[in-house]
Amino acid sequence: MKRTNRLPFIFRSMLLSIFLPIFIALGILIYTITIRFGNSFWDAQSLIGGVPIPWFDVFLITFPYLLGIWLFWKGQWRLPVFVAGMLYSSLCLLVVFDFLPQYTPPEKRTIRFDSDIHRGVNIYCNGVYLGQSPLKIRVNELMAKVPEWTSPPEQPCYNEDAWFTYTWYPWDDFRSKARFLEAKELIDFVQQSGSRLSSSAQQKQSTLYDASCRYWWRFEYNESQKILVSKNFQSLYYFSRPFEQIPEYSFPPFSYSPSVAIHAWLLVDVLDKLTAAEKNEWDKHVLKYWSSLRLALTRTLKIKAEQYRSKNPEDPRIKLFETALDSTARLKYGLSDLPTEEECRRLLTNWVNDSADKNRPFQIVGRYLNSTDDDHQGASVPAQEYLLVDSAVKSMGETVRKPLTEQWRTDYYRFENGWAPLLYVSRKDRDKEYFGDLVRYFATTYNGRLELLENQNERVIPLFKTLLYRKDILPIDMSRVDRYHQIVSFYRRVNNPLLEQIYRDYIVDALSDPKHSESSRDKLNHSVLQAVSDRIDRKEIDKNELAVWVRSLPLKQMVKDILLRKIHLTRDGVKSFADLIELASHFTVLVDTNITVAEVNRWFEENPKKTLHHFYQEFREEFRYQRNSYANNDDIVINSYSISLKNQSSVDIDEISVYFVTALMQTETPETQKTIKQLYKDEIGRKAVLSAIKRKFSLQTIIQDNIIRHIDYSTDYPDYSTDYPDFIYDIFETLYEQEEKKDLASSLALCSSPRAEQILEKWSQENQTGKQHFISNLENWRKQKKLQEQTKKLFHELVEEKITPDDLLPPQTPWVWKENKYVPVSQ
Amino acid sequence: MNTIIVKLAFRESGMYIVPVILMLLGYVLFRQDPLRYFDIVVTLLAMLLGFFLSWRSFADYGNVRAFLFSRSYSPSRLFLVRWLFGLTAITVTGLVLVAMMVFGIRQSVQQGLFANGWFPMIRFEELRVLMSYSFASLLTYHTTLYFMLTNRFRPPVRLHGVSLWLRRLVTVFLIFYGVAIIVALVFLLASAFNKGYPLLGIPYLYLIFGIPALLQIIIAPWFGIYCYNNQEIES
Fold first, then answer.
1. Across residues A96-123, what is the average pLDDT?
2. DSSP state, residue A22
3. What is the count of structural domains for chain B?
4. Distance from CA of B156 to the nearest CA of A (A)
5. Which of A190, A200, A697, A727 has the fewest Cβ atoms within 10 angstroms?
6. How many CB pairs under 8 A join A and B?
7. Residues near A44 by Cβ (< 8 Å), separated by ≥ 6?
8. A13–B197: do the CB atoms touch at under 8 Å?
9. Quick check: A655 pLDDT over 90?
10. Does the predicted TM-score (pTM) go above 0.80?
């Protein structure tokens, strides 16, 4: 009888095949969620009506499966139950994942070190070794394993200049206020953090740390101390879901080693003294430290090459520094000096396979290749991050063509990220042969736009015309005039002489449209400003012709002025004070005023004894504060002054004015010296000059910092190569305030000029308080000097592992916890 | 005999499927952007095609049913010819789409009317859209077919007492639910595709929709014959 109650097998099979897509999709969904949420998700306890229900989530997810299997087995006429079950469980899934708060008791939360922290970092807590990253540990496991410390430990050094970064070294408190907060506390904290930027070091201490901390972390990588840097709060995610509580603590992903900068300088300084065998050792050493060294090393090589180029463009050492990493890349990727096709094929396949494994470098390459708006990432990252990929591509040369074409075709269906290095290679080459493959890839994925549009095949012309008028890249409901600025912005980075005229014609058409509203015209002006600015930096574009074209455009007069000034500056170089202001504006400002630079220049010529501050005061009414669409990532020097003056508050020295003075300091012309000395007489100018000296920024550093902030969040790379111009030492000698001297002593310790030693010696011999501070800086200077003189010896010791990169660091003043704050031991 | 069944099926479904097919061909001919693996319009039109084919061919309203089952051919033949009619309609439409792309008709229209710069590079690449078309049309065709056949299926002995209206209610509910789930999955995939993981998603697409579509083609004839041989027919 029972058997007759069952539906026939064929019936059940058909039913199962109909619901199969749902079952398979749910399976994939669950798998994805499990991977994404990790252990904490499965261990989460749902609070419903105040009652914790363990494994409730698991039950909800498996319920439809169990029901389906049971019904198929029984084969009974229970379809309503089945359907209701499916509906119910689907709804429950939605509720669990999107609406119900997930509460995890603090002791069950997981601490994770698996984001972007370099793999293989040794992790200690309160002196107990926990393992290497990636690492996950529960709070209760940690507490069982690691004894509490009742007070914060001694810190070997502390950087008072830290700007929104943690520089506790090497101990790092995982319970610090900013690191892991519940949602409400976090909101309060972030609201306070604005004022913290300008607060003193002690205020920062009290905001960031308190004495209730019990667990302190330490990180080591290849025997070098590492410091975590937190500029992005991991918990910001919870703002969007305010009822959710934190199931886990994820450490900020960015970290750096304090010894990185000095290590990089040593490796670069020693380069021109090495034999071929020693260069091989150099390559191995660089590869060992590559993950932490890469940014600093590539940057340092670039700076060094530029230094030689500025003195003698024919210097053979320029090439040495520019190609230093080629052999490192060949070693890393197993390429011979003249790579064969087989080697190239193997490397390309490895790249594709590696990136399938969520290899971060290639993900970022992908982001670079596909990015359309973010200039920092788009323009500069590969040169920094992927110098090794770049070098490998250079080494492969023509040999890569055939394997690359094969790879394009055979691996078409493979992992999307795997295409990034292939796109990278094809972009370097721009070979017409790749065009068809690039079009097909782009048509499928809409990735690889730049590589496609920069290809030299003439078929790119009709394609670009089609793409310019495509609708599906932008919201459908957008009006025609609102689309213009997006399209201009979208394609502004395309660098292909075949398409330049079409792009410019489009800009002219867009600007000439009579139906523009005020806002759409403003936006379009902004996009054109960016597009033309991009072109100003391109060497192959004739600046005179560009200037003529810009003059003919129906742009706003202000935008036109800015562009023409930029063109003038790029074409003719820095020749006047006005140019210097303009140069500063490149990095910090877009001058939003109706005063022309020529007027500023003239005013300074007519009033030689007056300062920049007088200028601002005199023309205060002329400055209009319009933080409109023209102000993008940059800010405005002149505006910053005008805002302060309008508010009639005292003018603080902020980052921007320091940048401005730094820009002035870069050119060692008599005019610059005169201007800086003039500024120095003024109280505001004086503070700006001293801050700029203290920061020891160079323009290059500013640019690099901007890049690094986007990538590695490690901003504290001191520059060991550049020195101050001679007249700055005159300023040092005129200093009389003790605090100012103390502030600048550590900057002076990094200079190579013997005058720095003389001044430090003089300061340390003066009978005054804080003498120890000057003596230790003098020692630092001497150690630094010794380091410069003994680069080869130190390099060998490093390679033979007799010393670690940390041993290259100057001795630091330890800091101890005293009366609820850290103080230097000397106090 | 077969001709009569086919004619009947076409007469019932023609006025529904012909406009859908024309819309599909028109869309494929005039769409200016490349057709990718997943195209929402092609998918929805294909679903509509599958649904109309199944619904109109197998509904048999009024006394048509009694008439059909009183003919000399067997219920199995009736089912198989109808089922094959649906599959043929889907296949022929697909072949016309292929011909439009392969023989350059779409390319000529696009270049002639719109000066479309995508061509000739993507002329053959666009064939990939057939994946959306075939999965959507076949799955919808068979899902609707299942509900059309079970509506009149004679249940096992102990369930003879379950009233017809209750089973119809369940059927309508299931149709609604099944279609809703499939549409939701389609949109889920569409959104995943638009977020830039198209190539990554292809294997999943084959897995989620390809295997069930294949299974259904194998199971459907047996299932259909079984249902036709065991159904309740009103006098």
1. 63
2. H
3. 1
4. 6
5. A200
6. 137
7. A57, A102, A103, A104, A247
8. no
9. no
10. no
